[in-house]
Amino acid sequence: MQNKLKSLNHYSLLSNLIDYPKAGFTGMVQKIQLFLNKHYPESGRILEDFTRFSECASFEEIQELYTRSFEVQAITTLDLGYLLFGDDYKRAELLVNLSREHRQVGNDCGLELSDHLPNVLRLLPLLKDEELKDDLVQKLIYSGLKKMTREFDAGNLRKKNEVYIRHHKTLISISEQYGTVYRKPLLVLQLVIEQDFNIETTPAKKTSDFLGSIESEMNIEG
User: Fold this and answer.
1) Who contacts 160 (Cβ-Cβ below 8 Å, separation ≥6)?
2) 197 in a structural domain
3) Which of 177, 187, 185, 186 lies closest to 57, judged by CA?
4) How many CA atoms lie within 13 A of 66 on its CB side?
5) Shortest CA distance to 69 belongs to which of 166, 174, 153?
6) Which of 73, 110, 148, 187 has the fewest Cβ atoms within 10 angstroms?
7) Do the domain assignments include residue 83?
8) Closest CA relative to residue 21, chosen from 53, 52, 80, 67
9) 122, 102 in Cβ contact below 8 A?
10) Looking at the domain assignment, is residue 3 inside a domain?
11) What is the Cα–Cα distance from 99 to 113, expressed in whole angstroms?
């Protein structure tokens, strides 16, 4: 790892970008923007649209877009294991192992599962095992981020919306200007990891299909 900050504490800071927005969210985004401008200027430029969104939108609008992006009629999920493995037994094993790691270092996962991206990001600086950190970053976090950002592509969005309309009859409206703006913090995280861990970008491997998982769940519910 070639981490110019010599620690991973900034991942706890960056986790706030994709955690459920809480009071003071805009100020936190501004703080992260300044941090990136100083240490990761390319990532800072990528985040600028998201920072502007956080400054011009109401707190309720920010929360609604977060929910629409990651929870209800979601563009993608922040649960890394589900994204990469679906409901396969591999995710169950991952949840057990991650829960143990969270518990050992006292990382509170709140109401989310152990593979929820913000929880895993906050876990990173607390781990002492360097090999485990590298595995967690490269095999789980980075692989998941690449898949998350692809889910925001126009073709994938269109297919998901068709599924949601078919099953729910209605589609939750989304801002034309900022509807996909949550892709920006995901791209920022991906780029920061590439720099910190000296990752060479390669074509993403085929992983579990999030759209297929959505359709399967809805067919079961129906």
Assistant:
1) 73, 75, 151, 211, 214
2) yes
3) 177
4) 20
5) 174
6) 110
7) yes
8) 67
9) no
10) no
11) 8
Task: Band the pLDDT of 216: cuts 50, 70, 90.
Answer: low
For residue 159, the cross-strand partners are none
Query: What CA–CA distance (Å, rounded) separates 170 from 175?
Result: 16
Tokens standing for residue 117: 């991206």
Residues recorded for the chain:
222
Separation CA 78–CA 114 (nearest Å):
11
Report the CATH number at residue 151.
Answer: 1.10.3480
Q: In this structure, how many other beta carbons lie within 10 angstroms of the beta carbon of residue 11? A: 22
Residue listed under structure tokens 């493995």: 85
Give SS3 for 165.
helix
**DSSP H or E segment with residue 30:** helix 25-39
* Residue 77 structural domain: 10-221
Residue type for position 128: K
pLDDT in tens, 137-163: 999 999 999 999 999 998 988 888 888
Measured from the Cβ of residue 191, the count of other Cβ atoms closer than 10 Å reads 19
In a domain, 2, yes or no: no
- pLDDT, tens only, 89-144: 999 999 999 999 999 999 999 999 999 999 999 999 999 999 999 999 999 999 99
Q: 115: exposed, middle or buried (C-beta count within 10 Å: 0-12, 13-18, 19+)? A: buried
- Number of domain units in the chain: 1
